[in-house]
Amino acid sequence: MRRHAIAAALLTFAAGTSCRAMINYQSSVAPRYAAALPLQSVALDTHASLPPLRVVTLNLKYARQVERAIYAFQSYVPLRGADVIMLQEMDAPATQRIAAAMGMAYVYYPAGVHPRTHRDFGNAILSRWPIIADQKLILPHLGRLRHGQRIATVANIQVGSETVRLYCLHLGTPSDIGWAKRRDQARVILQDATTYPLVIVAGDMNSHGIGKEFRAGFLVAHRARLFHDRNLQLGSHFFERLRLSAARRRRSGPGHPRNERPLPRVGDSHARVRHGRREMRHLR
């Protein structure tokens, strides 16, 4: 009997320590970490039309395996030369190391201090194009277990003569908040994005069905896994609202082969669905 009592006490203690509350940063402007492009990267033509964009998203769990992520970004062909990298579960030092290694500008907002690591926990946007504005959007609904808040890190980048609005998300997990609350979080992004003609949303949505919330306002919603090894999984949900030329709309009409459904492009970068296996193709 005593053995059962000790086991119950240990389980209670373990549950209590594993579910300690997150310390939330309730300010919408701080903490904030950012850096501009290195001087050698600033000579960009601001009058050029929108070029191809390569966007990568990665949940780098608790900001671990930073060197492995840098190696993947620099060495793996589909990831090399990414114009935008969106990172989740980051802290400031890890963000700074990756941005410095890639020669990119960045902005990082933590949602709070995670009780497991005792370090900041949030989302970062890295860009080869100038970041001209940024913002932290606090999303509704605290988590059930750790009472942690979720945020979106937002940035406007100047790509040639165009401004592209970027949202880096990490929505609540199914064990932390229900489907309706994750939908509420997505709708905050949709509401904020209404006035911007060029928008890319990417990140860890913790849901396979959240894309339908974006279909009404966005031209394409898709999931793509670009890269996988034991410690890193790159590729998550991408949602894009982009201006399409008439020619591109005609290309996506009924004349296309049934086993390949073209999706709207960012310049020449597009997603292709073939034989039921989704993959991101980047064509320069």
Textual characterization of the structure:
Helix content is 23%, strand content 33%. By secondary structure, it is of the alpha+beta class. It has a single domain, classed as Endonuclease/exonuclease/phosphatase (Deoxyribonuclease I, Chain A, 4-Layer Sandwich). The strands form 4 sheets. Strands 1, 2, 3, 4, 5 and 6 form a 6-stranded mixed beta sheet that branches. The chain is globular, with a radius of gyration of 20 Å.
- The CATH topology is given as Deoxyribonuclease I, Chain A
Task: List how many beta strands DSSP finds.
Answer: 17
Strand/helix succession: HEEEHEHEEEEEHEHEEEEHEEE
CATH class: Alpha Beta
CATH architecture designation: 4-Layer Sandwich
The chain-level structural class is: alpha+beta
* Global shape: globular
Question: Count the helices. How many?
Answer: 6
Brief descriptors of the model:
33% strand, 17 strands, 284 residues, Deoxyribonuclease I, Chain A, alpha+beta, 6-stranded mixed sheet
